[in-house]
Amino acid sequence: MFLRTFRNNFPNHVYFCPFRQKEVISTPINSIKKVYVPRKCLTSLKKTKNKDSLQKTTLDLIELLSSESGIRPEDFGVHGSIALNMHTVESDIDLAVYEAKNFRKLEKTIAKLVEEGTLTYVINNRLDAARLCKGRYLDKIFMYNAVRKPEEVNSKYGTHKYLPVNPVRFQCTVKDDSEAMFRPAIYKIENYEPVYSASALSEDKIPKVVISMIGCYRNVAKRGNKIEVSGMLERVENVKTGEISYQVVVGTGINENEYIRPL
After folding, report:
1. Cα(262)–Cα(131) distance, rounded to whole angstroms?
2. For residue 190, with 0-12 CB atoms within 10 Å meaning exposed, 13-18 middle and 19 or more buried, which class applies?
3. Which residue, 5, 157, 191, 193, is the most exposed by fewest CB within 10 angstroms?
4. Which of 156, 212, 148 is nearest to 19 (CA)?
5. Strands 226-238 and 259-262: what pairing?
6. What is the CATH number of domain 38-150?
7. With the C-alpha atoms ordered 173, 244, 249, 155, is the resulting torsion angle positive or negative?
């Protein structure tokens, strides 16, 4: 549906990717006027004169989290409506923290501040309960997510070809959650167990990685946790070496019933 809308109304924003052999929505670089970088948006917010109450609360919260966690202030950022200066008095506070290590520090710090009563968690569903990335500071709801630092970017466009194989639904154990807080969220897995016979795979096709393109499935499970996954099995080919591996992607846009569910 989205592709059809873009194809009919914004054809320059539809790109045929030779490495995925399909059309994707992609904005041409020459059409981008400005990139809003969370870290730079925070710097701009600090320099803003006559800050309103939400802007002041945002800076107070970041100062609190920085001092309690030991994370440098420059490793924080803001995004969402505050970054775009489009917020209202009802807006939430959207925070970014740079680097996986800092994200884990922030998790522990927020848990401590919740225990002390300075903050409270906001839990509306089972994913909120698993992620614990949403809270309340004073009278404002805040959310925090992780952003990779340049040295944490370990993938490059054009190095692999991807081919969808078939939908699968299975349970597994998280082997490595070191990139689970980013978007896309990457979970290395083991102990693949098909939920249905149609998801049974030969040994050479069993995926070692689950990748979620959907933001709400970031950080829903830690190493050692069991999860249920519904997604698309993909064949991955290294363009240079020809090596073949398999992964499962959640959020392909092909099937609405794709998810990662903590067990």
Report:
1. 10
2. exposed
3. 157
4. 156
5. antiparallel
6. 3.30.460.10
7. positive
**Euclidean distance between CA atoms 214 and 211, whole angstroms:** 9
> Which H or E run includes 2?
helix 2-9
The one-letter amino acid code at 157 reads Y
Phi and psi at residue 91, in whole multiples of 5°?
A: -70, 150
- Nearest CA among 175, 37, 188, 181 for reference residue 105: 181
Token pair in block for residue 15:
């790109």
- pLDDT tens series, the chain, 263 aa: 678 899 999 999 999 999 999 899 999 999 999 999 999 999 999 999 999 999 999 999 999 999 999 999 999 999 999 999 999 999 999 999 999 999 999 999 999 999 999 999 999 999 999 999 999 999 999 999 999 999 999 899 999 999 999 999 999 999 999 999 999 999 999 999 999 999 999 999 999 999 999 999 999 999 999 999 999 999 999 999 999 999 999 998 777 899 999 99
* Count of beta carbons in the 10 Å neighbourhood of residue 95: 23
Structure pTM?
Answer: 0.94
Q: Helix 100-116 and helix 53-69: axis angle, to 10°?
A: 100
Q: 160-262 domain in CATH 2.40.128? A: no
Residues 6+ apart with CB under 8 A from 38: 76, 77, 78, 79, 83, 96, 147
How many residues are listed for the chain in this entry?
263
